[in-house]
Amino acid sequence: MKVNTSKSGWQKVRKLLNDLHLWMGLASGLILFVVCLSGTVYTFSSDIQEWLEPGKYKLASEQKTRLLTAETLMAKVMDSLQDGRITAVTIPADSLRTWQVTVMKTTEKTTKSAGAPRPDRGTTYFVNPYSGEVLGTTEGAGYGFFMFMFKLHRWLLLDMEIGRPIVGWATVIFSLLVISGLIIWIPQKARMWRQGLKVKFSANWKRVNHDLHNTLGFYSSFLLLIMSLTGLTWSFEWYRDGFHKVLGTYKPRGASREESLKSVLPAEGQAIKPTVAAYLEQVNAQLPYAGISRIAFAGSPDGIVTVTKNKTGFFAPAAGDRIMLDQYSAAVLKTEIFSSKPVNERISGSVKALHIGNVYGSFSKILYFIACLVATSLPVTGTLIWINKLKKKKPAAATPGLSQRSIA
What sections of the protein cross the membrane (predicted)? Predict the structure, then answer.
């Protein structure tokens, strides 16, 4: 009798979770479909834009002549723009790829379109490192389309203050759907485990639809949960603060990680700064591997130069190592090796990479793309399961081998 009571109690829990799973899915299905679809499309936005305009990103072998110094290249860029100041230079490991020069124009903050991600960071120009020719900006072919997808994903094309909380609460529901779906997925009998791990394509379309929802949802659930839990940091400030407090990495907004680091001001008339090559020499001595280096120049007389270096390759991690330098002497003030940081700091510093899927380069982006495709299909297959249940003419118990487990 105790066993039967236990089973009866578990059945009640499963029924409650099934009901909650169903109604939460129906209530948020349309929004989640739009958010997941736009996220799927946006996954390879940078790769697609490079494919559309390859000449901006990579040079032909015959264009490779004598490399300009960074100072000469930057001077040529400013001669062509005649406005603003250079805040950063990105130097690739591949000698046939273009350099990127970020320029903050005097009118930058007022001329950028509303809703664009971080307009205060300036405009990035692609530059031929052998001629100094400006080949274009990041706002090229495909930029408008992917910005449309970005706004659709984040705000449903609504006003930010309205769309962001809507997407946020839909994401909260999505997280609950994944968790409840995983619990519902757990087979009641050991012999049913195998059934929940495969799609029976030889069955009728209703069974195939059920298995697609059930099985693919299970396989993608881990990545989907990571996406949703990290995505909420952009929807709610209270969640973002709590997320970092739990990790022990919380800092008040506006607080700088290097606020205590300052360059030593030289004596009057001796403020001759080292070359970019001198900065890189210091960095490469500390980080002796091939990679992409981004030099962020000091923004004030006592500011520091920050160089971030990233490895390249199919499995290359998104996180980079950082070296902070005195802008006048190029002396190393601080070194941050990402792999040497505590786990909580590595997670905190990888929130964006964990959300968009470039944690390990193209490899993880492909996995995220597949998981996003599955997430886009779940509201559709889940709704079809519900409709089929409404239409069925005989109880599910009469259909052998068909589990009532579902996952979203």
Answer: 20-44, 166-186, 216-236, 366-387
